[in-house]
């Protein structure tokens, strides 16, 4: 996939999170998000056994194929390969990107988290296909996230590098447009979708807002 | 490695366990066990981040090479590949063996846990290089282990299959000989070593006992 195609497919990234899903299971949540237009499902479940992750991943693999969405696995590169996901996402506490790339192979998508310019430069040098940049705003979904960094790192990186940027952390339909206009290819959400009363409607509203921002004249090309 | 060579190298398997190590770090515990003659170190840490596992695995990789011992990673096939371990061990809550094999490749060692004859038959069919059979006796090291099965499954499997068997669960220098004589290629221990006052002495006593049992006339060939 070339960068423009990947950037397009990264528009709206929904991370699963069993703790914030109000008792709804991961597959149910993902299906509702896909129905609302999520372009990426990222499987993330720090409580599950490997066996459970594989089972969830296999179910999400079928579902994402049916909706022509991407499946990315958080942290667990082995699970990504085992369920034939489109890629894996690693944070600074996960496997170093060069080792993850070795296991994923050259074709699968490798996303890397960056909360500072230094981390972003390292991830780009390590061959990340996209960067997960954040936390942009204060967030309740990832309690171990660093300090909020705002839109500044997005605009700095977008001006200097072609690597697609996915903004994460406290994003909503209200604040997503400024981040897209700062140069993000897409946004990633957890609670804004998985904790919503109506997951499909919440996803659709986010997607519509992002698409409108991408088409506004100030948008980064 | 052929089966006889592998069986020999599986003689004394020490699983790391941070919770039972009385404040001593994993590398310190492993070095002391290797000094006492452990032939396998199995990295197992359900609390560590992937990054920490990689760091521990890299340190254990150097150490096990220096002592000509095997390094096996529990559950995390990705970590096994990333640190160039000799293999991985998967339980019934971990990745299914055929998927693990796909990521490990044909050369690395794949160990699979079996607590029943059915699980053992499945693991052999899936191409396990060795079976971890247990829990043999009641154990405090793995609180999620199934009911104790005694030596019977070891002797049944040893009589029917050439796959090396590593007995696990409640094993000590006192009860290890009968399990070796029942046909186990080796034994695996957690607390008997990692919780010992003198890790090196405890390991050496186990090794000596196992080696004596292997040479006794009743031993499985
Ligand atoms: Ni020897």
From TrEMBL, chains A, B:
One Pfam annotation, family name?
A: TMP-TENI
A GO biological process held by the record: thiamine diphosphate biosynthetic process
Q: In which pathway does it act?
A: Cofactor biosynthesis; thiamine diphosphate biosynthesis; thiamine phosphate from 4-amino-2-methyl-5-diphosphomethylpyrimidine and 4-methyl-5-(2-phosphoethyl)-thiazole: step 1/1
Annotated EC: 2.5.1.3
Q: What class of enzyme is it?
A: transferase
**Thiamine phosphate synthase/TenI domain mapped to chain residues:** 13-193
Keyword entries, A-Z: Magnesium, Metal-binding, Thiamine biosynthesis, Transferase
The residues listed in the UniProt record as binding 2-[(2R,5Z)-2-carboxy-4-methylthiazol-5(2H)-ylidene]ethyl phosphate, with positions renumbered to this chain, are 170, 190-191
Q: How is the cofactor bound?
A: Binds 1 Mg(2+) ion per subunit.
Molecular function terms from GO: magnesium ion binding; thiamine-phosphate diphosphorylase activity
One of the record's GO cellular component terms: cytoplasm
Which residues of this UniProt protein bind 4-amino-2-methyl-5-(diphosphooxymethyl)pyrimidine?
A: 42-46, 74, 113, 142
Q: Which SUPFAM superfamilies match?
A: Thiamin phosphate synthase
Top-level taxon of the source organism: Bacteria
**Cofactor needs:** Mg(2+)
Binding positions (Mg(2+))? 75, 94
Q: Which reaction does it catalyse?
A: 4-methyl-5-(2-phosphooxyethyl)-thiazole + 4-amino-2-methyl-5-(diphosphooxymethyl)pyrimidine + H(+) = thiamine phosphate + diphosphate; 2-(2-carboxy-4-methylthiazol-5-yl)ethyl phosphate + 4-amino-2-methyl-5-(diphosphooxymethyl)pyrimidine + 2 H(+) = thiamine phosphate + CO2 + diphosphate; 2-[(2R,5Z)-2-carboxy-4-methylthiazol-5(2H)-ylidene]ethyl phosphate + 4-amino-2-methyl-5-(diphosphooxymethyl)pyrimidine + 2 H(+) = thiamine phosphate + CO2 + diphosphate
Q: What does this protein do?
A: Condenses 4-methyl-5-(beta-hydroxyethyl)thiazole monophosphate (THZ-P) and 2-methyl-4-amino-5-hydroxymethyl pyrimidine pyrophosphate (HMP-PP) to form thiamine monophosphate (TMP).
What does the similarity note say?
A: Belongs to the thiamine-phosphate synthase family.
Which NCBIfam families does the UniProt record give? Answer: thiE (TIGR00693)
PANTHER family xrefs:
THIAMINE-PHOSPHATE PYROPHOSPHORYLASE, THIAMINE-PHOSPHATE SYNTHASE
What is the protein's given name? Thiamine-phosphate synthase
Q: Which organism is it from?
A: Thermosporothrix hazakensis
């Amino acid at each position: 996939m070339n960068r423009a195609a990947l950037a397009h497919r990264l528009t709206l990234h929904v991370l699963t999170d069993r703790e914030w899903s109000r008792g709804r299971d991961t597959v149910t949540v993902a299906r509702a998000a896909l129905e609302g237009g999520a372009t990426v499902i990222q499987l993330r479940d720090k409580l599950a056994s490997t066996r459970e992750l594989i089972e969830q991943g296999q179910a999400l693999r079928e579902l994402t194929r049916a909706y022509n969405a991407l499946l990315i696995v958080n942290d667990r590169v082995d699970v990504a390969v085992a369920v034939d996901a489109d890629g894996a996402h690693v944070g600074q506490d996960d496997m170093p990107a060069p080792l993850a790339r070795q296991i994923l192979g050259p074709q699968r998508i490798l996303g890397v988290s960056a909360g500072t310019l230094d981390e972003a430069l390292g991830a780009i040098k390590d061959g990340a296909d996209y960067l997960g940049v954040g936390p942009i705003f204060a967030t309740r979904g990832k309690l171990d996230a660093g300090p909020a960094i705002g839109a500044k790192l997005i605009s700095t990186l977008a001006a200097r590098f072609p690597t697609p940027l996915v903004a994460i952390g406290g994003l909503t339909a209200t604040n997503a447009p400024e981040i897209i206009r700062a140069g993000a290819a897409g946004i990633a959400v957890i609670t804004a979708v998985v904790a919503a009363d109506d997951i499909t409607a919440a996803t659709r509203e986010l997607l519509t807002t992002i698409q409108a921002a991408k088409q506004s004249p100030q948008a980064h090309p």
